[in-house]
Amino acid sequence: MVSRRNARCLAALSGVLLLAYGAVAIAETSAAIAEAADEPTETEHFDCRQLAEWERPESPVEWFERSLWAGHCHVFQARAVRIGIDGVRTLALSRDIQDGVEREVARFLDGPPVFFERRGHIGRMSWSNGDPEVPASPAGMARHIEQYYRLSMGSDERIANRSAVRLDIEPLDGLRFGHRLWLDEDTALPLKRELIDDRGRVVETFQLTELQPPQLYQGGVVLDATPAPPQQAWGAGWLPNGFLDQPVDTQTDRHDPEVGHRIYSDGLSTLSLFVEPIEEGRERLIPGLHRLGISLAVVRHVAVGGRPMQVVAMGELPPRVLAQVAESLSWGEASEAPE
């Protein structure tokens, strides 16, 4: 049970999480919020018009990659329903592209009024680390997840009055959750997503119920630059295989390298690490395991050089994974994530 105080704190952390990155696949077009990066002086673009010339995908990995590109290159409006252990919510979704910059809006139609907006570009798979060839996230992600998930084709179905191709995505270990995706046969846009926990239970379903005919953007979408990783005094000492430090600037205190937020992802599953000092008068979380919707958070209080710090590992992952990540935090000058 989460206390009212802990619920407020976790809700704030969840808001920061949404501000920092958009979840992959169908969540990327719905409830993600992100701060748009500063426009680089020399921009690269992905020409969305070429999608109309590509051959129909054949393999599960090809369908998955096509769905990611489609999510960046189509303009549409839709209605959706989200079903989770915390209840049922309906949403209105819209997606637009202006001058190569994507804009996604999600508005809940029932319950407490919530409005999410994301403006951004096509991201990169990781920080540059001096490598000028860091792939754009759709291409890099599709190649990456093959190493940690088994992708297969399921039976075709009909979702939101459109023909859909089903992808079954099963983790190759017990350290992450599985997924089922239903992709629009014509555009490869995600129409439905199920999140499956390590016990085989469907813990969340997100499904479009109505989709106005999507339009392919007739131009280029901006590709993010390849930034160098920030220098922080801490990082994850252990991560499940395949989790990479994401190129999102989440430094919350420019004057204190021990305070901040880092995001790690294997391309489908994502976890976030928060570190902040425990100070008099500031609300803190009770150490242990907490649940916020389908997300879990493990909280630890540690002393670093005599300074009390709060560590939170949060994500849609098995509790034992979050606990091990939180317990393995490494401290030192300019700590980097492990390879």
UniProtKB/TrEMBL annotation:
Residues 1-25 form the signal peptide. Its main location: periplasm. Keywords: Periplasm, Signal. Pfam families: MucB_RseB (PF03888), MucB_RseB_C (PF17188). It is found in: Periplasm. InterPro entries: MucB/RseB_C (IPR033436), MucB/RseB_C_sf (IPR038484), MucB/RseB_N (IPR033434), MucB_RseB (IPR005588). Residues 61-212 form the MucB/RseB N-terminal domain. It comes from the Bacteria. Residues 230-329 form the MucB/RseB C-terminal domain. Belongs to the RseB family. This is Negative regulator for alginate biosynthesis MucB.
